[in-house]
TrEMBL record:
Alphabetized UniProt keyword annotations: Oxidoreductase, Peroxidase
Tagged with keyword Oxidoreductase: yes
GO MF, any single term: peroxidase activity
Name of the protein this chain belongs to: Dyp-type peroxidase
Statement: the UniProt record of this protein carries the keyword DNA-binding: no
Organism expressing this protein natively: Pseudoalteromonas ruthenica
Domain Dyp-type peroxidase C-terminal, first and last residues per copy: 1-115
Pfam families (alphabetical): Dyp_perox_C (PF20628)
Amino acid sequence: HGSSIHVPRVRFNIDAWQALALDEQEQIMGRTRLDNVLIEPARENSHASLAELTNEAGLALLLDQSMPFGDVFEQGSLWMSCSAHASAFDTVLTSRLGTPANYDQWLDYNQADMGA
């Protein structure tokens, strides 16, 4: 038994993200930008739909926490994700990658550049 932890650093493409209209950003994330409220119904391929997964009991597969970092050249987040089951990371990643026609479009605007 025990817990598994994943710690990736993710860089954001802020210029490309900011070029999108607010409504498109919200549809991609599946949440409102200003108050982080889940959009109901969220698009099937929204980040919220594909990354915020729960088990049969309705509990989150991952406990996530992030801390932003940045300067004028680079912006992003350092993430820490914890789970009671190592398979949860594969489940969430597989969900986010989906298919070429139905994947988490937030992946188009960020890239993990290190992790443990």
